[in-house]
Amino acid sequence: MTAAPVRRTQQERRAATRGRLLSAAVDCLLERGYAATTVAEVQERAGLARGTLLHHFPTKAALMVAATDHLASERIERFRSDAERIPADQNRLHAVVDLAWRDLNSPSFFTALELWVAARTDHELREALLPVEARLFRALHDNLSALLGEEYAGDARTATLVEFTIDVVTGLSMTTMLTSNLGHRELLLRRWKRALGVLLGELAPEQLVETRRH
Q1: Which of 19, 20, 31, 107 is most buried, judged by most C-beta within 10 A?
Q2: Nearest CA to 90 among 167, 149, 27?
Q3: Structural domain total, the chain
Q4: Rounded to whole angstroms, what are the CA distances from 18 to 12, 23, 170, 211?
């Protein structure tokens, strides 16, 4: 005797529909970018009626922010997972820079960056995006701080240096987005790792820049 199919609740069906729309929006953002992402294309990718999409997301801004929030949650989870896999004996300062770079030089980050640019002149998008980005960067800051461990937890300089690391790596990622100068990028990342050591008193200032070998 064939068992009767389990019927989903209205809440489960609503969540499934919303998930399809968000997945379609995220895929479109990652593949085509914000400017080329339209409500019509998201609807087509999701295979749902336009009225269904508008019921969940009345405006493009609402849809884009929800998709960004979805991406932010994935970034936070991936960030935590990557942090857990870092060997215990790895230099903590170097690990923080490497982990920040992996997150802030990813397709998800560049997608978020496109929305930041659009939000400069779109008040509705900016107001909706601010709390999403605040949650993401707070999680990024907290996880980087936690990665440093007890050795640095009580140091009054730690929070500021973590913030500096996020800003430095964000700027470097934006700069290298349009170039392919990998050597310069690696040099700057190495120097920032050393700069953290200098700022924390673990390295002498003259060790910031490596000496040339003859």
Answers
A1: 20
A2: 149
A3: 2
A4: 10, 9, 31, 56
- pLDDT for the residue numbered 214: 46
- Give the CA angle between residues 72, 73, 77 to the nearest 5°: 115
pLDDT of residue 13: 87
pLDDT tens digits, residue range 162-196?
A: 999 999 999 999 888 777 677 888 999 999 999 99
**Nearest in space to 102 (alpha carbons), one of 83, 128, 119:** 83
Is the CB of residue 109 less than 8 Å from the CB of residue 173?
yes
CATH number of residue 22's parent domain? 1.10.10.60
Q: What span, in angstroms and rounded, lies between the C-alpha atoms of 8 and 142?
A: 38
Q: Does residue 192 form part of some domain?
A: yes
Report the Cα 46 to chain-centroid distance in Å.
24
Over the stretch 78-96, which tens digit does the pLDDT of each residue have? 999 999 999 988 999 999 9
User: 65 and 52: one domain?
Assistant: no
Q: Distance between CA 73 and CA 124 in Å, rounded?
A: 22
Whole-structure pTM value: 0.83
**64-107-49 Cα angle (round to 5):** 35
**Full residue range of the structural domain in which residue 46 is found:** 10-58
